[in-house]
Amino acid sequence: MASLSMTQIRAGNWASGFGLNRAGKVQVGPSSRVGFKVFASETQATEPDLSVTVNGLHMPNPFVIGSGPPGTNYTVMKRAFDEGWGAVIAKTVSLDAAKVINVTPRYARLRAGANGSAKGEIIGWENIELISDRPLETMLKEFKQLKEEYPDRILIASIMEEYNKAAWEELIDRVEQTGVDAIEINFSCPHGMPERKMGAAVGQDCALLEEVCGWINAKATIPVWAKMTPNITDISQPARVSLSSGCEGVSAINTIMSVMGINLNTLRPEPCVEGYSTPGGYSAKAVHPIALGKVMTIAKMMKSEFDSENYSLSAIGGVETGGDAAEFILLGANTVQVCTGVMMHGYGLVKKLCLELKDFMKKHNFTTIENFRGVSLEYFTTHTELVRRQQEAIQKRKAIKKGLQSDKDWTGDGFVNESESMVSN
Ligand SMILES: Cc1cc2nc3c(=O)[nH]c(=O)nc-3n(C[C@H](O)[C@H](O)[C@H](O)COP(=O)(O)O)c2cc1C
Q: Tell me, what is one Gene Ontology molecular-function annotation carried by this entry (predicted)?
């Protein structure tokens, strides 16, 4: 992995103000490759304002459909806009859908309750689904139609290609021609695609990632988010490489490599396809704490190395409530994606998410998302520091136990307790 200092990273991307990008086009200011949809604030006097503007893209709320089945065709993406999602990220597309061959069954679910009782709540979801198997031409037509019908709404294309510069350039060009607002790069699908050196195979190899991000960012003229895999020791490394290679944002996390279980009657793994299986990607409520950990790691790195005006973080993993989303935002996320939650609860979930997030904001008197974005991040520290803080607190408590500092501190009301506090044992 290339190691870049703070100064190099900033100067390399934004310091010049005016300049030429790698394609020779004139760039104006630090955020020249941002969307153009910056509208006036929609704040109402009494209600908290959920709207966000991320890399120049204005969204009525921070809730984004995560790439997957909920963004797989025109009908479902239209539904998402109609229900009020802040933005939609379509199912990942590649140049040649004929190479993408899915199997059935491709999902397996984990339920809470005794022995995975069929009635228990679904808390974990494994999939071995590939990227979109629909012809690229069809998907592109649908993106174009959606942008014509919903010009003010944010549509983000998710793309993935093989290790081939010309292929990436062609895909970016064709996707941009549809009028989509931004691109998310799927560097993170953990199953199937890495067998073709795609997805997580790129996101897990920082040298490869840097090279491919270089190709992508030299070509793209709209904001690019790099989607990270959690299946790596230190997720801040690929996140740093993506941002320092020109991406405007990172998204995290994609699914976690998993095996849902072994059927104790047939002795075969699940999901079982003709008696065999392959490890898949784990999502839903059960992954939320892992996603929080990964997002916290990336947010800390971004806070110390990249300026928050120009670089964004989109958090994903197990979101089903406004509180889940608030947690991600408290760590520094600008937007929050939901995929499996929509598969389980439907598109109307966004209304509940908005209400619950507003309730949280009202409780704390926050009027905008920026009021509380990242405020919990500073409370993560090292274990050594926890020990130091605890020893200091114990010393303070002991000192207080020794009694009142001066005779003037006697209150009369608490006389018995105050006397007690000065007894040695
Ligand atoms: C069935 C299924 C298909 C998915 N397909 C894609 C995909 O095509 N591209 C992608 O970037 N992520 C894909 N994902 C990953 C999700 O976008 C998301 O990163 C992950 O599931 C964690 O979020 P969640 O708990 O809200 O689902 C898929 C997830 C599921 C469950």
A: dihydropyrimidine dehydrogenase (NADP+) activity
Mutational test site, ligand 1, from 260, 338, 340, max ligand atoms within 8 Å of CB: 340
Q: Round to whole Å and give the CA distance between 195 and 160.
A: 13
The phi, psi pair for 107, rounded to 5°, reads -125, 150
pLDDT at 34: 57
Who wins on pLDDT, 416 or 256? 256
Using CA atoms, how far residue 97 sits from 138, 139, 141, 187, 330, in Å, is: 10, 10, 15, 18, 39
pTM: 0.86
Pocket test for ligand 1, best of 63, 65, 67 (most atoms within 8 A of CB): 67
Tell me the fold of 6-379. TIM Barrel (3.20.20)
Lowest mean pLDDT among 65-69, 228-232, 399-403: 399-403
Q: Closest Cα to atom 6, ligand 1: which residue?
A: 68
Express each pLDDT in 146-202 by its tens digit: 999 999 999 999 999 999 999 999 999 999 999 999 999 999 988 888 888 888 989
d(CA 401, CA 393): 12
Q: How many CB atoms lie within 10 A of CB 272?
A: 15
Q: How many CB atoms within 10 Å of residue 157?
A: 28
Judge whether 272 counts as a catalytic residue: no
Domain ranges of the chain: 6-379, 383-420
Which two three-digit tokens encode residue 213? 């991000």
Question: At 13, is the pLDDT very low, low, confident or very high (cuts 50, 70, 90)?
Answer: very low
Helix (H) or strand (E) holding 338: strand 335-338
DSSP sequence for 6-60: HHHHHHHHTTTSEEE-TTS-EEESTTTTS-SB-------SSS-B--EEETTEEES
Q: Look at residue 72 in the predicted model and tell me its pLDDT.
A: 98
* Beta-sheet strand order (sheet of 107-111): 107-111, 122-127, 280-283, 256-258
**Helix %, strand %, coil % for the chain, to 5?**
40, 15, 40
- With 0-12 / 13-18 / 19 or more C-beta atoms within 10 angstroms meaning exposed / middle / buried, residue 104 is exposed
Distance 211 CA to ligand 1 centre (A): 25
Question: What CA–CA distance (Å, rounded) separates 1 from 209?
Answer: 9
Q: What is the pLDDT of residue 86?
A: 98
Strand 154-159 to 122-127 pairing? unpaired
Instruction: Specify the DSSP element, H or E, that contains 167.
Output: helix 165-176
Burial class (CB in 10 A: 0-12, 13-18, 19+), 318: buried
